[in-house]
Write a structure and sequence with these properties.
Length: 272
């Protein structure tokens, strides 16, 4: 794997250094157990010396931490402070929390809240169910838009041109034999989501797991975020899918009304 040498980047190239530092933070955010310097350098395709210099800068400002015994690097407390500032500045996160609990209580399954960011769906909040076998998505986890329930719910609110642009930029990852892998299939799937008011991940990311999701909207009819119910296929059976789809869509409509929003043109809202 090719690496960028220390000498190839000018010391004055602060924008490039910032971009690399953010890539390191994003990588560490996805590894709860931490990563070694070598693992990080390989993952972001940088020289170990460059990676170490960037990590030390982040360490001094509290954005990363290092275990001196194991040599493992992890996200620092300052990153949490920045993340909390984002949540505080987005009232819909705290506002949606009671609705997520309502979804979990009504379905017996885990509920989630996610937004689109950088061509992915990013989870911001979750209410876990009490079942031993359940779906898990930590706040900050990222998932492809094209094959996730929350991702497809958000894509269904976008123009075909925007969807095509995201496909060109990020591709269409394939995880199981049931993953949608062509633009035509995806556009058909999104049309169905708009028609019924909710999207379905039918084992597209993981065999044995299903998810139904629906977006909620601001005053301009733009999708703010998506909420979902996810769980194992034996519990989210074929017969339950429409029931849960209607439940999550109605709940999303409640949040839309609560924030003074309106549904996007052409997006069905059950009960209206």
């Amino acid at each position: 794997m090719a690496r960028v040498s220390e000498s190839s980047a000018s010391s004055g190239d602060t924008v490039k250094s910032l971009h690399r530092g953010l890539r390191l933070l994003q990588t560490l955010a996805g590894e709860e157990a931490g990563m070694t310097l070598t693992e990080l350098a390989d993952h972001v395709e940088l020289a170990p010396s460059t990676t170490h210099r960037l990590l030390n800068t982040l360490l001094r400002s509290g954005f990363v931490e290092v275990n001196e015994t194991t040599g493992l690097w992890s996200v620092g407390v300052q990153a949490l402070a920045v993340g909390n500032a984002f949540l505080k500045g987005h009232d819909f996160v705290s506002l949606s929390r009671p609705f997520l609990r309502k979804l979990t209580d009504g379905s017996g399954e885990t509920s989630n809240l996610a937004v689109e960011n950088g061509g992915h769906a990013v989870f911001l909040s979750q209410v876990e169910c009490r079942a031993i076998v359940r779906a898990m998505a930590r706040p900050g986890d990222r998932t492809p838009l094209t094959c996730s329930g929350v991702g497809q719910a958000l894509l269904a609110c976008m123009s075909p041109e925007r969807v095509e642009e995201l496909i060109r930029q990020h591709g269409m990852p394939c995880y199981t034999p049931k993953t949608v892998t062509t633009p035509d299939q995806l556009h058909q799937t999104l049309a169905l989501a708009r028609e019924r008011g909710w999207a379905l991940d039918d084992e597209a990311q993981a065999l044995g797991m299903r998810c139904v999701a629906a977006p909620f909207f601001n005053a301009y009819g733009e999708a703010v975020a998506a909420i979902s119910i996810s769980g194992p296929t034996p519990r989210i059976s074929d017969a339950r899918i429409p029931v849960l789809g209607d439940l999550v869509a109605r709940t999303a409509a409640e949040i839309t009304r609560r924030i003074g929003g309106r549904p996007a043109d052409g997006f069905h809202v059950p009960g209206t």
